[in-house]
């Protein structure tokens, strides 16, 4: 993590108050009334086609918002002049379902050209992924602009590893004004979806360089993981993040209490005394989890920095005129 990181975060927090003035529910009620219906319709079709895809789209918001605010930068493809975020350490071979965002954008452009930002699409799609999977539904604040560029370096400096422990996660979230409760609740996004064997091989065979498995893994669950991810396996093989991977519920937290967290960054939330009380609470009270999750998602969605922006017509590339202007400046 470079020395500029705290300064960049300071600027980001300063900009949040100004950004909140422009973000509001119903932002597109006059300029694109069917916007939210269109996003949910496309997400519903994606869920039917491949349930895992909506969980993948939901996680794009986290990877977007933590790197220079919620600006759709994570969606930009690399160019000869720019290394974007898709190949950053925490994203390469991990982030997926960008094609679902493309489908949402195509439908919105057909209905309301040049109106709905890709950054707002990620926020809407994340909400819809949760609601369509049986989780809470909520009103989101909209009105974000899309960034003109992206930074692989910034993503590498900020985004946590699957090996992260609770202390490092707490420290990271606190720099975005997100509490320990927010951290644990937002980690509940792993209630749906899957993760790769790549992310847990060290837990199974060499935790902390010991040459042994993570002792926090429940023995029976470890046997299942050993079978799923044996030494020499294709590490892109995936396994469910909890016992109900297509239903958004509090099973994720019940699994952590039982020592059945898939990722180290999940199970550490129960082994750490600072986060354990919230894991226990959410494992027993799904309504409390849902309420805290919505609060955390809204706070995360408000992360912004002061920067030039636009409404991209293609979420993967900045608009041509904007790119030309940047190259000339």
Automatic annotation (TrEMBL):
<dbReference type="InterPro" id="IPR019794">
    <property type="entry name" value="Peroxidases_AS"/>
</dbReference>
<keyword id="KW-0964">Secreted</keyword>
<dbReference type="InterPro" id="IPR002016">
    <property type="entry name" value="Haem_peroxidase"/>
</dbReference>
<comment type="similarity">
    <text>Belongs to the peroxidase family. Classical plant (class III) peroxidase subfamily.</text>
</comment>
<keyword id="KW-0408">Iron</keyword>
<comment type="function">
    <text>Removal of H(2)O(2), oxidation of toxic reductants, biosynthesis and degradation of lignin, suberization, auxin catabolism, response to environmental stresses such as wounding, pathogen attack and oxidative stress. These functions might be dependent on each isozyme/isoform in each plant tissue.</text>
</comment>
<keyword id="KW-0560">Oxidoreductase</keyword>
<dbReference type="InterPro" id="IPR010255">
    <property type="entry name" value="Haem_peroxidase_sf"/>
</dbReference>
<keyword id="KW-0106">Calcium</keyword>
<feature type="signal peptide">
    <location>
        <begin position="1"/>
        <end position="19"/>
    </location>
</feature>
<keyword id="KW-0575">Peroxidase</keyword>
<dbReference type="InterPro" id="IPR033905">
    <property type="entry name" value="Secretory_peroxidase"/>
</dbReference>
<feature type="domain" description="Plant heme peroxidase family profile">
    <location>
        <begin position="22"/>
        <end position="319"/>
    </location>
</feature>
<dbReference type="InterPro" id="IPR000823">
    <property type="entry name" value="Peroxidase_pln"/>
</dbReference>
<protein>
    <recommendedName>
        <fullName>Peroxidase</fullName>
        <ecNumber>1.11.1.7</ecNumber>
    </recommendedName>
</protein>
<comment type="similarity">
    <text>Belongs to the peroxidase family. Ascorbate peroxidase subfamily.</text>
</comment>
<dbReference type="InterPro" id="IPR019793">
    <property type="entry name" value="Peroxidases_heam-ligand_BS"/>
</dbReference>
<keyword id="KW-0376">Hydrogen peroxide</keyword>
<keyword id="KW-1015">Disulfide bond</keyword>
<keyword id="KW-0479">Metal-binding</keyword>
<keyword id="KW-0349">Heme</keyword>
<keyword id="KW-0732">Signal</keyword>
<dbReference type="Pfam" id="PF00141">
    <property type="entry name" value="peroxidase"/>
</dbReference>
């Amino acid at each position: 993590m470079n020395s500029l990181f705290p300064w960049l975060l300071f600027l980001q927090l300063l900009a949040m108050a100004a950004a909140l003035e422009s973000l509001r529910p119903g932002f597109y009620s006059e300029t694109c009334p069917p916007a939210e219906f269109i996003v949910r319709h496309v997400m519903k079709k994606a869920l039917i086609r491949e349930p895992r895809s909506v969980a993948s789209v939901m996680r794009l918001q986290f990877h977007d918002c933590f790197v220079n605010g919620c600006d759709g930068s994570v969606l930009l493809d690399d160019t000869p002049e720019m290394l974007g975020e898709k190949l950053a350490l925490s994203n390469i071979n991990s982030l997926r379902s960008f094609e679902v965002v493309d489908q949402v954008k195509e439908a919105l452009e057909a209905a309301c050209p040049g109106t709905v930002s890709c950054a707002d699409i990620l926020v809407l799609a994340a909400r819809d992924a949760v609601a369509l999977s049986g989780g809470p539904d909520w009103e989101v604040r909209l009105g974000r602009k899309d960034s003109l560029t992206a930074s692989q370096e910034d993503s590498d400096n900020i985004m946590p590893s699957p090996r992260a422990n609770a202390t490092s996660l707490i420290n990271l979230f606190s720099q975005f004004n997100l509490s320990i409760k927010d951290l644990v609740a937002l980690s509940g996004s792993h209630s749906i979806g899957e993760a790769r064997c790549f992310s847990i091989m060290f837990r199974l065979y060499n935790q902390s360089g010991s040459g042994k498995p993570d002792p926090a893994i429940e023995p029976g669950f470890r046997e299942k993981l050993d079978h799923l991810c044996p030494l020499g396996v294709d590490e892109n093989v995936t396994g469910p993040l909890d016992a109900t991977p297509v239903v958004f519920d509090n099973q994720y937290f019940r699994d952590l209490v039982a020592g059945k967290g898939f990722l180290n960054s999940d199970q550490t939330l129960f082994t750490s005394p600072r986060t354990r009380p919230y894991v226990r609470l959410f494992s027993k009270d799904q309504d409390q989890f849902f309420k805290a999750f919505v609060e955390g998602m809204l706070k995360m969605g408000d992360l912004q920095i002061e920067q030039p922006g636009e409404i991209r017509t293609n979420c993967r590339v900045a608009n041509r005129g904007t790119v030309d202007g940047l190259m000339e400046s």
